[in-house]
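Lecture 7 notes: from sequence to structure.
We start with the chain below.
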Amino acid sequence: MALHEQCSGKTDEWYTPPHVFDAMGVEFDLDVASPGRDVVPWIPAEAHYTSSSLGVDRPWYGFVWMNPPFGGRNGLMPWLTKFFAHGNGVALVPDRTSAPWWQTYAPRADLMLFVAPKLKFIGANGLPGPSPAQGTALLAAGPRAVAALTNASRLGVLVKPVREAA
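Predicted structure tokens for the same chain:
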């Protein structure tokens, strides 16, 4: 059996590298899935919900940044449900285009940015980790998020989802 992707679950403590925020050039009101400002001082968010504060269960406000835990089958679904209901922010997700959650939620994005090359996330030790098994995408919800991803277009390929006519 070939190993196509490393299994998840070892740790969710991988943080978005600073150059992603530099490329977007925006300030967020809230980081909804943060390890805390003391751990990720480069994330330009006014407030941070830490994992211990259960960001998915608390009320969100303003322009949000979301890099939720990637682990667990369908573990992203509650985060993405809340993200698109909120409708104002940028979400970083694995680009698992054949996954049912991707098929459900990606078309709801106002704009997607497939990041290339693969991001080297920052580990809990503060150092960049190895290249992950899968790539990542940034999903935009709302006009500020579309502008942020347009600013960051040098990070990869922009795609506007095609929605079926109602």
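Points to note: Residues 1-9 have pLDDT under 50 and may be disordered. Residues 14-158 form one domain.
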